[in-house]
Sequence to fold (174 residues):
Amino acid sequence: MRVRARIRAAWVLMRGQAVPGVAQMILAGTQRVAQRLAVLGTVAVGMIAVTSAAQAEIVVAKGGVLRVLDRMTGIVSDYDLAPGQAQAEGRLTVRLDECRYPSDLPMGDAYAHVTILDSGLTDPVFKGWMVASSPALSALDHPRYDVWVLHCDVPEAAMAPAPDSTNSTTGSGG
Fold:
């Protein structure tokens, strides 16, 4: 009911008619909304601070794996590319510029800077970052081909689980 009253009051104010208490009601509602937004803003800033403090170190990989799908033929091709290396697939030339991953989750959250050229065009059809865990976030818009990042080339040492100090086997057993 309050919403209808506010809408009616706003309509009356727009028409230039005076209604007792309408201005106070609108002002009070605006103040409540502003207070709620201030609280939400404070919570959001706190969440961003906690998230950024908890982020792992970003590692630049020595290469990455890109997948190319030709929608007309249904052929899927995976290319393991080093930074700066390009691979031709039909009309497209796909170049990996850089591949990065977080040290705590090397296979999950990889992202790569990719440049994709079409032989019939002078400008790149795509130039930017692609995220392996969310391929649709920054996707190539091409009528025939889909290209996405699978993962970065990660050294074996980065994929090995960290030693757990709580399960030590030292001491006398009986």
